[in-house]
Amino acid sequence: MFRALGHCVESFDPSQPGRLCRARERWIEPWEEGIRPGLLTRLVVTGAAFSDDGAADARRGVPHAGVDLADLVLELFPGRDLLAFVEDGHPEDIPDGAFGIEAYEGYRAGGAVTVGLVRWARVVRDRAGLVDLFGDSPEERLRGLCVLRDDTDLDGLLDDLFPLVGASSLDSPPCRFQPGALPDILDRSDAVLLFHRDKHGVALGVYARQLPAAEAILRRLAEAAGALHVPFGIAPMLARWDRALSELRAVWPVAELGPFPVPPAPPEARFQSRRRRRGRGEDALALDEGVDDLLDVADDVADEAATADGSTDLEDDVDGEDVDEVDDVDDSDEAADGDDGDDRDDVDDSDDVDDSDDMNGGPGVDDDPDDWEPRES
């Protein structure tokens, strides 16, 4: 497996935060008013491990690049005191030195009963403290870190952190952060580090008004881990690794660095959307013909229904160009939706109705509680 560390630096508007990793995480709905105007700067870092530049088998997240998250944080902000903060934590995970501890009740994802949860914070000054707090899944144990100033008012900072995470939800996918709270937090700290979810691990999001020069640091960390440094044009937890690798290969300085270190994927292993494979007959590159046959039947049914009500078939030409060719020109919308081709098992269940009661013999969302009677055992 080949390892890579990817990053993107971009402007960030708290009132229009965009998407996070599809089916893994979403923003708390931004406030309709009260968000302070002005752009922030965002650095997003994640990693991946894959067999070839098709990245069809990519495992995504900082740990898969072979880079330790604690080292990444300390290299970006060396010698700085950090404030770790937790929301929806487990009472048994409260460490020594924690303060601002509050206990409350909340719901786990899909839960029908409340459970005891806690929020707390702790100042961290060294690598050992970070490693102790991170554990095996830092995105599950912590919500993030604040880079403190010498004159930071910790009590005031805790007050500003509550709107960031206080209205979070543990639904599926969870909404964990309120983007509109970031400007106030940055009045008291130099940067906010949020632990976002990538497909198979943590992605680090750094939000600030002014960021340190990160590319040289990330390149050095990648080289030390034996990983390839890959720049992205958009947040890498939304983007496709195969496309980023293809763009990097196109500008790779062969004379200086030698051949591109990641081998090309064989044609039959490269990801192609099923729409692009349709109509190619025996040359179609189907990884599972049985599944394709079932999906084609579903498409035929949908086409018949669309024809019956006068809808336009998605396979029709657009201004004389086939839709597939239009897709080849501009996939930015696909990336913005988090539909990255190297992971074909994405299921966005953000709109799913919680029917846990109905499945367990209780009233469903469409039932009238007055008409419901317990099932006979």
Protein model, in words:
The protein has two domains: 255 residues, no CATH class; 68 residues, no CATH class. The chain has 13 helices and ten strands. About 19% of the residues have low confidence. The longest helix has 20 residues. It is α+β, with helices and mostly antiparallel strands and 377 residues long. The protein is globular, with a radius of gyration of 24 Å.
Features:
2 domains, alpha+beta, 377 residues, ten-stranded mixed beta sheet, single chain
List the helices and strands and how they pair.
Layout: E1 2-12, E2 40-50, E3 59-60, H1 69-76, E4 82-89, E5 99-107, E6 114-124, H2 127-134, H3 138-141, E7 144-148, H4 154-165, H5 182-185, E8 189-197, E9 202-208, H6 215-224, E10 228-231, H7 241-250, H8 254-257, H9 274-277, H10 289-308, H11 323-329, H12 332-336, H13 356-359
Parallel strand pairs: 1-10
Antiparallel strand pairs: 1-2, 2-3, 2-9, 4-6, 4-7, 5-6, 7-8, 8-9
Helix pairs in contact: 1-2
